[in-house]
Structures are given as structure tokens and as C-alpha cells.
Specification:
Largest sheet: 4 strands, antiparallel
Number of helices: 4
Structural class: alpha+beta
Distance between the termini: 74 Å
Strand content: 15-25%
Number of strands: 4
Radius of gyration: 26 Å
């Protein structure tokens, strides 16, 4: 039989070890040209027809991952979450860095100019 390329969307992979466990499972089942991308949540492999697709999906789900259809909505990708976290942290980090760029503008101690201890602490 001719080999066909199969692509699956798999959620729940968070690291390279997750991808490696799926790769090893597919190798044990005798599949070829296996590519597992945990960041893109994709699994690609070639099947010559000896193993049925529901059996492969069942094996992946037994590992603790979820195979989703193309039409269903799933949670946002990993890098989108990181960008949102970066923007949130940047807003709260800006005031902390402001006193480094403009010294004295964020001084809360009224004795800053006369007290050496206050200069050392701030």
C-alpha cells in the first residue's frame, strides 16, 4: 500500500519530553517519518495502512494528551500566552525602572538630599 501523510493536532504537550513520549509511541507502532512539534501542537507521520488511525489516537490519548479536530476551538498557543504575560509585566516594571533613568523623580524620602543613609538605601 502507498504511504499516506497524516497530521494531527495534539494539545497538552508542554515540553520536549512530552513530544518525545509521543514520538516513541509512534515508533513502537511502526510508523515512519514522524515529526512531533510541541510548540505548534502538531504531530505528523506516514502510515502505510497497517495501523488504523483510531488506534493511534487512542494510544496518544492514553499518554495523557488530547487529539482535537481541525474545526474545534482550543486554547491559545503557548507563545500568545507569553506575549500577554510580557505586556502585563512591562506595565508594572516601567515605574521601577523610571527612577534609574530620572534619579530623584520617584524619591519618597523628604530627607533624601541631606541624609546619606537614605541615599544608600534608595
Amino acid at each position: 500500500m502507498a504511504e499516506q501523510l497524516i497530521e494531527l493536532n495534539v494539545t497538552g504537550m508542554h515540553c520536549n519530553n512530552c513530544a518525545l513520549s509521543i514520538h516513541k509511541l509512534l515508533e513502537k507502532k511502526g510508523l515512519n517519518n514522524i515529526l512531533v512539534d510541541f510548540a505548534g501542537e502538531e504531530v505528523k507521520f506516514s502510515n502505510d495502512g497497517t495501523i488504523q488511525l483510531p488506534e493511534i489516537i487512542k494510544g496518544i490519548e492514553q499518554l495523557g494528551f488530547k487529539v482535537v479536530d481541525e474545526g474545534t476551538q482550543h486554547e491559545p498557543k503557548f507563545y500568545e500566552k507569553v506575549e500577554n504575560k510580557f505586556a502585563f509585566c512591562a506595565i508594572f516594571t516601567a515605574p521601577l525602572l523610571l527612577h534609574m533613568v530620572f534619579p530623584g523623580i520617584c524619591c519618597i524620602c523628604p530627607w533624601y538630599n541631606c541624609c546619606y543613609a537614605c541615599r544608600f538605601l534608595l
